[in-house]
Amino acid sequence: MSDRGLFEPDVLITDQLVAARRRRAALSNEKRLMLAVLENALDDYRKYIVADDRIGRELFAEAVEWIACPSNEGVFSFENISETLDINPEYLRRGIAAWHRRLLDAPRRPTETPATESPALARAAG
User: Fold this and answer.
1) 94 is in which domain, residue-wise?
2) What is the pLDDT at residue 38?
3) How many CB atoms are located within 10 Å of the residue 98 CB?
4) Rounded Cα gap, residues 90 and 22, in angstroms
5) CA–CA distance from 35 to each of 28, 115, 122 (Å)?
6) What are the tens digits of pLDDT across the range 24-67?
7) How open is the CA angle 11-15-70, to the nearest 5 degrees?
């Protein structure tokens, strides 16, 4: 049995972030700021993935663009932050993508009954 099949990617992402948070006390101020930037982007990605308002969609799009950017130019690029914090950026991207696919594939429960399926309309239609 392969060790690779034992863990779900999002669990490993969480484990990596927990480990990074534990190291926070020993981190320099610059690394603490980098970790905060990474956590903020991941929080925005998770919170706004299904946003239906303009601001939420914009925050999600910004997080997606930042995470997807392959450039390591700039101190606060996703690549540079990940590597500085000893997190493999490609592994993190794959985990985020896998989590995203599972979320979109999950069955959704309707939040409200569409007007065409309301009991009153069904009775009226006979």
Assistant:
1) 3-107
2) 96
3) 14
4) 22
5) 11, 46, 54
6) 666 788 898 999 999 999 999 999 999 999 999 999 999 999 99
7) 85
93 located within any domain? yes
Q: Shortest CA distance to 20 belongs to which of 41, 1, 8, 34?
A: 34
Asked if the structure places residue 120 within a domain, the reply is no
Quote the pLDDT of residue 15: 73
Q: Which residue has the higher pLDDT, 9 or 104?
A: 104
Q: Which amino acid is at 55?
A: I
Phi (first) and psi of residue 81, to 5 degrees: -60, -50
**112 inside domain:** no
Owner of token pair 């690549």: 79
Spatial separation of the C-alpha atoms in residues 19 and 13, rounded to whole Å: 10
Residue 118, domain member (yes or no): no
77-82: Cβ within 8 A, 24+ apart: 78/38, 78/41, 80/34, 81/34, 81/35, 81/37, 81/38, 82/38
